[in-house]
Amino acid sequence: MKTFITNLPKAELHLHIEGSFEPELMFKIAQRNQIKIPYNSVKEIEEAYKFNCLQDFLNIYYQGAGVLVTEQDFYDLTYSYLQKCADQHVRHTEIMFDPQTHTDRGIAFETIINGISKACDDAKTNLNVSSLLIMSYLRHLSEEEAFKTLKQSLPFKDKITAVGLDSSEKGNPPSKFKNVFEASVKEGYIPLAHAGEEGSAAYVWEALDILGIIRIDHGNNALQDENLIQEIIKRDIALTVCPLSNTSLQVVNDLKNHPLKKMMELGLKVTVNSDDPAYFGGQVNRNYEAIQEALNLSKFDLYQLAKNSFQYSLLDINAKQHYLNELEVYYNNNK
Length: 335
Ligand code: ADE
Ligand code: ZN
Known about the structure:
Layout: H1 2-7, E1 10-16, H2 23-32, H3 42-48, H4 54-65, H5 71-87, E2 90-97, H6 99-103, H7 109-127, E3 130-138, H8 143-153, E4 162-166, H9 178-186, E5 190-191, E6 193-195, H10 201-209, E7 215-218, H11 226-235, E8 238-241, H12 243-248, H13 260-266, E9 269-272, H14 277-280, H15 284-295, H16 299-311, H17 317-334
Parallel strand pairs: 1-2, 2-3, 3-4, 4-5, 6-7, 7-8, 8-9
The structure holds adenine and zinc ion.
Adenine is lined by residues 16, 19, 54, 61, 166-167, 194, 197, 245, 275-276.
């Protein structure tokens, strides 16, 4: 199974680039920028990465991102993640980035986007991994702040495919961002959002009906509402599920109780993703392995998950078909 998963062609659709920041690279960049971080060793970092909830994690995650200053830093962070994609047969990835985490510290939008997108271009050439970018608004900040970010992004519109909504979910419903999502869509960005990770099914309804999202990040709590499940199926919307994130943040108490298999049985379209791999104990393939083992998934289930990852990506139809053909050949030779 491990070998089957390693070589399975797949896409990753839910990944925060700031959450891919491995301790070794964080130390290196902190030193380069002469910024102090409150850890002396990788062991100390691992001790700190024990979370009771989403907010616990976010506090540490924003602190880590605080050492990123130059275009080279953003490039190194992104290229390092893309190299891991190549090693794992992640053929395509849709990368979220949180501009406000950096612009609020005085880093120019241009620095962030240029570093990240150059790494993506180089990875396409050197590693044959394709990618696109999702600009995520931080929901603990105001809609007005999100509007500022939207405006800053406009000169770089050709480098950004979609907008997302992340950070502290509870108390920050999707409806808070109705206007900025409307404006973002008018600019040509595809609307996506985290919903139903810690927030209730009502938040997922809002994300669908008020923000008009076409893919749900997490969506676990959609299972609380039978009508919502049917609506998601009717609209043919996928859930980007993150198993190890869910156990790390206590969204799910044990992987054996993870709802992924139930979601598939209900007819929901599900994908497997790492969310913040440096913080949650594993890259995307580790997520596939862990959930396969916990729920006793078959090779066919894994193939379906990989198929969904291409099918529900934001790629155009030709690129999707190219990767789906690759997957088909792989599955037929290895089932
Ligand atoms: N930002 C990074 N990871 C996140 C998650 N799992 N939920 C919400 N915001 C995030
Ligand atoms: Zn996420």
